[in-house]
């Protein structure tokens, strides 16, 4: 018998299948991890079996033999192997890179093991009374009070973990050694689970009466489970009860023996989802994300693989969870950019989920209050079925949204970061003992530091971006949000030498300071990338706010989605237009989505909600539509603009990004331009756009960045020209330069 093995080395020369002979006494299957001799020196290397055959084209003497099987279980499901093959072709990555996404990194090389603890119990057939008498010296023997107390404790509880015993009675450690020698107690080492969110608990079950729209959505999704097909967009306004629809569908899937995956866009959303779903499904719920410890990730992955957990919650990487008999994949807030991986291999969770569903016959549900333009367009074409939730689940009305024109505020002499309307609304909200959320999509104190004498802006030495000004109670600093470099702000301008340096723009830190200044008694929490660096920091902040331990939650887009706080009656959107004019064709879409999503946090309980949107561009169609919370109005105008300008979904972009040493990057970029130009000339093809030059951010972490941007009409997909363009660069390696090639990149910076 012969095994087809992918070696765990990410290199173009090794990116193919190797045949190995299977020892007669070894039982193997596709998906097993094995150790094999590799290369001229027969160095032991880890590999993954993707197929087994009875014959091979190689002569017997040329075939090496598998050294050993690494696990007692298969690390990959058959469908995962097929998924990896598809990813290697679709994303032009190494097969091993795709496979690595599907197992815990620590599993490779045996870097993580099961956690075992010692459990103590009484020895079998031991006479407890006689033993206790001896230890107490009742027969004239030597007293051993610590041993007696330890033995008494063990006899009362039956079995006890050694660490727990030592914590309860510190003297037990040395006493236990003697008790073992005397044969009074015995011990065994048992595996224990490293459980994430152990203290989170389960949200109480709230049996909700479904609205007619929710009921229809659940029935549609559940009926598709047995039909082994189904692609749905669940388009529900904020607060419409999409999560309840997910829950009912998942319950039905599990009851029918199927497994489920639910993707969320932010790790911060994971705890509340876990708590709610555990309330109904208990230990059937597993969690996978990068903030877990290595041990927690391994144990959760193993629970999923062995079927102990039938539902998985996590960000985009959870789409690779080893769920057997998969019946349902849900992508919540499907419009979010975070579902696109910008690291190699660069995959899109939507595409991977859709392929996995086609391999398994599972149903795919995309949920959002603000679907991506591309997804909604697919619905209009009939590629995806449309399910609507047009009303809030509890019968509440959407919050009233008001616009504050900051140009008028300025003309009236208001230099505050809060408009008059927002200041008054904040005062009223606090007086009623209600809660508010303030959204600003910039962390730090100020956006940049500029000299008013000569116009110089302090930039990062390693990146072509301005440094962001940060301030705490004990320190001021400038920080680059691209490379993380920090430095002390200069007191004099390094160009003109004058002391006219001033901070411009606002961030979450400044908003926090201003709230404290205007409302000294207000209790404030801030949630951004700076305050959530520690493990479980998201959870602690959100739990504190949910328990009403704070009046104001200030944050970036982390607070804009999915959170449900019944006492929040006011939402303030500061600098609503900050994302409108970035150099990206999706800027209007992202602005609309952010405003609509954060506005939806208000009025989700019994109290009415109010939203105030501060902007310098109140007439922009994206802001107008967001204020009305009217997706169809936004879509109608945006899709017409994209059709006219030939932007996706009416065309596609391919970007080749080069980064590295300046001379090497320039050479690689120009060589690639020549390759593409020759190809298009030979094929008699003319792209809609063919530009090259410095990337919008020309340097990050000291590396020069250049790009080639192609815009192609959709016929390039139909006649497989996109695939051929990628193949032009298969195995292409540039010295001192890295090239990243991607279709419809999530951002063009």
Secondary structure topology:
Layout: E1 2-7, E2 18-21, E3 33-38, E4 43-53, E5 64-65, E6 68-69, H1 78-90, H2 95-100, E7 115-122, H3 128-135, H4 145-157, E8 159-161, H5 162-168, H6 172-181, E9 185-192, H7 212-227, E10 231-236, H8 242-255, E11 259-263, H9 270-281, E12 285-287, H10 294-305, E13 311-314, E14 326-332, H11 349-360, E15 363-368, H12 373-381, E16 385-389, E17 400-405, H13 406-411, H14 420-431, E18 435-439, E19 448-451, E20 468-471, E21 476-479, E22 486-487, E23 501-504, H15 508-518, E24 524-527, H16 537-546, E25 552-555, E26 568-573, H17 587-599, E27 610-615, H18 621-628, H19 631-645, E28 651-660, H20 662-683, E29 689-700, E30 703-713, H21 715-718, H22 721-727, E31 737-743
Parallel strand pairs: 2-5, 10-15, 10-16, 11-13, 11-14, 12-13, 14-15, 17-27, 18-25, 18-26, 24-25, 26-27
Antiparallel strand pairs: 1-2, 1-4, 3-4, 3-6, 7-8, 7-9, 19-23, 20-21, 21-22, 28-30, 28-31, 29-30
């Amino acid at each position: 018998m012969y095994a087809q093995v992918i070696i765990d080395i990410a290199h173009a020369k090794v990116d193919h299948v190797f045949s190995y002979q299977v020892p007669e006494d070894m039982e193997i299957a596709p998906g097993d991890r094995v150790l094999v001799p590799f290369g001229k020196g027969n160095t032991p290397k880890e590999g993954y079996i993707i197929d087994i055959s009875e014959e091979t084209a190689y002569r017997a003497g040329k075939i090496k033999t598998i050294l050993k099987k690494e696990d007692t279980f298969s690390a990959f499901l058959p469908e995962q192997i097929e998924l990896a093959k598809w990813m290697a072709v679709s994303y032009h990555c190494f097969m091993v890179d795709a496979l690595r996404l599907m197992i815990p990194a620590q599993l490779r090389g045996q870097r993580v093991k099961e956690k075992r603890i010692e459990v103590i119990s009484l020895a079998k057939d031991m006479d407890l009374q006689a033993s206790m008498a001896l230890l107490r010296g009742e027969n004239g023997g030597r007293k051993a009070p610590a041993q007696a107390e330890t033995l008494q404790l063990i006899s009362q509880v039956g079995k006890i973990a050694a660490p727990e015993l030592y914590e309860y009675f510190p003297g037990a450690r040395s006493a236990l050694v003697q008790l073992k020698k005397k044969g009074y107690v015995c011990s065994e080492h048992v595996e224990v689970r490293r459980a994430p969110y152990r203290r989170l608990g389960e949200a109480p079950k709230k049996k909700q009466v479904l609205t007619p729209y929710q009921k229809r959505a659940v029935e549609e999704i559940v009926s598709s489970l047995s039909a082994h097909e189904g692609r749905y967009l669940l388009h529900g306004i904020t607060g419409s009860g999409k999560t309840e629809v997910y829950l009912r569908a998942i319950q039905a899937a599990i009851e029918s023996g199927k497994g489920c995956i639910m993707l969320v866009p932010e790790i911060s959303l994971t705890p509340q989802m876990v708590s709610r779903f555990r309330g109904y499904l208990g230990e059937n719920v597993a969690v996978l994300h990068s903030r877990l410890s290595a041990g927690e990730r391994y144990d959760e992955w193993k629970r999923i693989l062995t079927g102990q957990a039938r539902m998985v919650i996590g960000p985009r990487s959870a789409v690779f969870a080893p769920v057997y008999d998969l019946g349902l994949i849900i992508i919540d807030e499907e419009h979010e950019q975070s579902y696109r991986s910008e690291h190699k291999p660069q995959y899109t969770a939507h595409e991977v989920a859709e392929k996995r569903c086609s391999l398994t016959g599972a149903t795919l549900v995309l949920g959002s209050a603000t679907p991506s333009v591309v997804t909604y367009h697919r619905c209009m074409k009939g590629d995806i079925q449309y399910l609507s939730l047009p009303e809030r689940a509890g019968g509440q009305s959407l919050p009233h949204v008001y616009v504050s024109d900051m140009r008028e505020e300025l003309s009236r002499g208001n230099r505050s970061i809060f408009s008059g309307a927002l200041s008054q609304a904040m005062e009223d909200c606090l007086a009623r003992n209600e809660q508010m959320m303030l959204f600003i999509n910039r962390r730090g104190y100020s956006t940049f530091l500029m000299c008013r004498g000569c116009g110089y802006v302090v930039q990062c030495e390693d990146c072509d971006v301005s440094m962001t000004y940060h301030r705490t109670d004990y320190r001021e600093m400038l920080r680059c949000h691209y490379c993380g470099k920090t430095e002390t702000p200069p007191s004099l301008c390094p160009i003109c030498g004058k002391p006219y340096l001033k901070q411009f723009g606002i961030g979450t830190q400044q908003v926090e300071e201003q709230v404290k200044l205007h409302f000294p008694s207000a209790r404030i929490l801030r949630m951004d990338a700076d305050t959530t660096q520690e493990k479980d920091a998201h959870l602690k902040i959100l739990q504190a706010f949910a328990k009403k331990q704070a009046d104001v939650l200030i944050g970036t887009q982390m607070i804009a989605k999915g959170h449900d706080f019944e006492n929040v009656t006011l939402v303030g959107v500061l600098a609503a237009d900050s994302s409108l004019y970035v150099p990206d064709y999706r800027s209007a879409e992202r602005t609309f989505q952010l405003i609509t999503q954060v506005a939806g946090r208000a009025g989700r309980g019994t109290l009415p909600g109010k939203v105030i949107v501060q902007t310098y561009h109140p007439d922009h169609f994206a802001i107008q539509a967001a204020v009305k919370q009217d997706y169809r109005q936004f879509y109608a105008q945006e899709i017409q603009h994209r059709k006219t300008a030939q932007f996706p979904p009416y065309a596609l972009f391919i970007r080749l990004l080069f980064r590295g040493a300046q001379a090497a990057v320039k050479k690689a970029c120009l060589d690639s331009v020549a390759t593409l130009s020759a190809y298009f000339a030979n094929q008699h093809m003319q792209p809609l756009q063919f530009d090259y030059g410095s990337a919008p951010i020309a340097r990050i972490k000291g590396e020069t960045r250049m790009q080639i941007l192609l815009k192609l009409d959709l016929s390039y997909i139909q006649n497989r020209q996109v695939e051929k363009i990628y193949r032009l660069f298969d195995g292409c390696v540039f010295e001192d330069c890295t090239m990243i090639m991607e279709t419809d990149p999530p951002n063009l910076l």
